[in-house]
Amino acid sequence: MADDGMLLNFAIGDNVIKPEAKFKGGTWRDRLSAKKRSQHLPREGGGDASARNAASKNPNHIQVPSSRPAKRQKTAGTFDLDLDDAERSRPQQQRQHKPRQIVSSLFSFNPERRNAEQPQPEEETEETKPTNAPLIDGLDTFTNLGLSPNLAAHLLTKLDLKAPTAIQKSSIMQLLKEESDAFIQAETGSGKTLAYLLPLVQRIMALSKATNDHNTQNGVHRDSGLFAIILAPTRELCKQISVVLENLLRCANWLVAGTVIGGEKKKSEKARLRKGLNILVATPGRLADHLDNTQVLDISNVRWLVLDEGDRLMDLGFEEELQGIVRKLDARQRPSRVPGVPTRRTTILCSATLKMNVQRLGEISLKDAVHIKADPEDEDEETTANKSEEDAFRVPAQLKQSYAIVPAKLRLVSLTAYLKRTFIRKGSVMKAIVFVSCADSVDFHFEVFTRKAATQEEKNSDNEEEDNKDKNIELSPHGTIGHATAFSNPSNSVILHRLHGSLPQQVRTATLKSFANSNETSVLICTDVAARGLDLPNVDLVIEYDPAFSSDDHLHRIGRTARLGRDGRAQIFLQPGSEENYVEILKRSYRDGGKALTHTDATEILKRGFGSNVKSDNWEAKATDWQLDVERWALENPQYLEMGRRAFQSHIRAYATHVAAERNMFNIKELHLGHLAKSFGLRDRPGKINVPGLRPGKEDTKKDFRAERKGVPGNKRKADGDDDGPSTTTTTDAARKMRAKMREQMAGASEFNLA
Ligand SMILES: Nc1ncnc2c1ncn2[C@@H]1O[C@H](COP(=O)(O)OP(=O)(O)OP(=O)(O)O)[C@@H](O)[C@H]1O
């Protein structure tokens, strides 16, 4: 393919474009070999000519206005390749004095947006009433709903919870009144944890006849029996639930709660169970294990079973364990010697969706369940009648979403520009989360954004304090927290955190804690490990740089903002082409068809991020410069180059794991891999990627062909086999296996490591 370079800066010297030598006379064979010979002659200044040729054919090849002194070429692919032929042939000193040209392909040959429809601009959207806020009308108080004065006073005075949310109102009323099973469904950030914990704790507290002195009581104590089990899919969520529960039980200190979630010796968990617990929070795998092997775990008194994040429990493959747990609870249940303990067990299933797998979980665990929703009266029967239950999973109405259609080549600069603009002033956004597709991509972007070699402009604007910060870039012993040099500025310094499932548990916990407790402007770049259930305070903005693997995951991701009635914004990056159809999915999650959904112009993002405040006419050059700086940095540091390659490859593999129903929008065959490589700081698309369904590149096909011809079948298999995925020629079955493996890798065997 011809170089699609574009001249940007714009005094083209005579020797910038060298006319190709013409070979005349002789036969066509003679002419061809003369031409070939000339192309392969070593050039003045040395270097690998074939590599240069390859580079010049690369559609992503960029010729650079380097502010740095030209370096000697170390390996094929260092940035000497960026010099044009005429330039390269000049002595080095002369080169430095010659005004340089920028020739960039960053802004050319990018696909256009397919869909020109412009939704309502952001400024024009009206303020919307929050749908997940506490009901502060004064009519609904915790006491009015039937909670004991002791518990209600504790909520108000010690936990500063003044009024219930809509889902809490519905569930408290239902679960205090009746003993039927229940399915609780509500928006993200609507306080579902307390929605089941409050009635449960109230019921267990009521079993005790407390005396005036609350430290003693007749009736219930830690040895009276285990009355409730709460199951959640991940260790992290269990810990979160356990903290809320401990806080509640401070007003009923004769009751004891505990966790069995793994991550510590089973012996210590057994010791805890032996001492006696009234409420147990557990992961299904660990509980199943204890039910089989720990005799002191007596479940004969269990009368409440909560399955939190039901869809996730099923997604992570806990069906078998859950079935076993329910069977054992049924089989081992005995009449309790504690007065007031109900005869039958109540099971509560919580989920944001009613997907098929949740229905399956309902079949396993629920009998004649009541469906508890936030606003039953609010539902317009006619409109909901036509919608599937899955569609009823909605975003909080006050959450403002926007999408940008960004071509592959411009993705990295656009994300940077967006972050630069977001953090231009202190205070407008304090905390943001950036979701990317895989752990390798998290690591790569963390390095890019915290690297010391920022652009010249950034270096100039750095003050001494910033330099010191640069020196101490590692703010954490684990290297998961750093100073975001790429989008900090002298008036607003931003701390970047990285999180993914391949980090050890204690590192994840420490990093998450640091992000949650940070009083400084902070960004968390992560995989879907942080998408579900986690309650991180004061997140103002969620950026989906890579769209989620399913629309449900998308809703969970953006649900990390706009919690409990607070404002929140979400920005998603889509690529031109089929991905644009995802906008329809974004609209579907609003009650009003998506008035709060706006479009952000991709060029505007770049202009606002790279253009100066006064004039934004040089933004293209600045964006190009920034991109080149990243590419040079990668070329100069083999470990980062390798990181970029790995990130690119993992990203492509991850792209193949979008759920089947959405794969028409995220069609791997439509990806322009050469362009996409650029967004990982690479000038060339790395070789073999081994993604089912992906057309092999010419190089790959040739290599395979050669290997097969030489009769080395193992060759191909080995390259594909020890991997995270099958070969490019594998069957659907292999594709399925790979998706499962990808999910497993990202979801991880360990809890909290959500896909
Ligand atoms: N009535 C209330 N008033 C004020 N804050 C509340 C109230 N109920 C819950 N909260 C707070 O709201 C936050 C979110 O609660 P929770 O994590 O239970 O939401 P959720 O609906 O389970 O969210 P997700 O769907 O994301 O898991 C918590 O910090 C909790 O302390």
Task: Tell me briefly what this model is.
By secondary structure, this protein is of the alpha/beta class.
Q: How would you describe the overall organization of this protein?
A:
The chain is α/β, with parallel strands linked by helices. The protein is built from 28 helices and 19 strands. The strands form four sheets. Strands 14-15-16-13-17-18-12-19 form an eight-stranded mixed β-sheet, with helices on both faces. Strands 7-8-6-9-10-3-11 form a seven-stranded parallel β-sheet, with helices on both faces. A two-stranded antiparallel sheet has the order 1-2. A hairpin with a 6-residue loop joins strand 4 (209-210) and strand 5 (217-218). Helix 7 (192-207) crosses helix 8. The chain is elongated and about 80 Å long. The two termini are 38 Å apart. The relative contact order is 0.10. The protein binds adenosine-5'-triphosphate (ATP). The site of adenosine-5'-triphosphate (ATP) has 18 residues, from helix 7.
Q: Which residue ranges are poorly predicted, with pLDDT under 50 across at least 5 consecutive positions?
A: 1-21, 40-104, 210-214, 378-391, 468-473, 698-702, 704-736, 738-755
Count of strand segments: 19
Share of helical residues? 25-40%
Structural class designation: alpha/beta
Q: Enumerate how many helices there are, as a single number.
A: 28
Sheet-strand content, in percent, reads: 5-15%
Strand order of the largest sheet: 14-15-16-13-17-18-12-19
The rounded Rg comes to: 30 Å
**Shape, please?**
elongated
If you average the pLDDT, what whole number results?
A: 76
Give the termini distance in whole angstroms.
38 Å
| Small molecules bound | adenosine-5'-triphosphate
Largest sheet: 8 strands, mixed
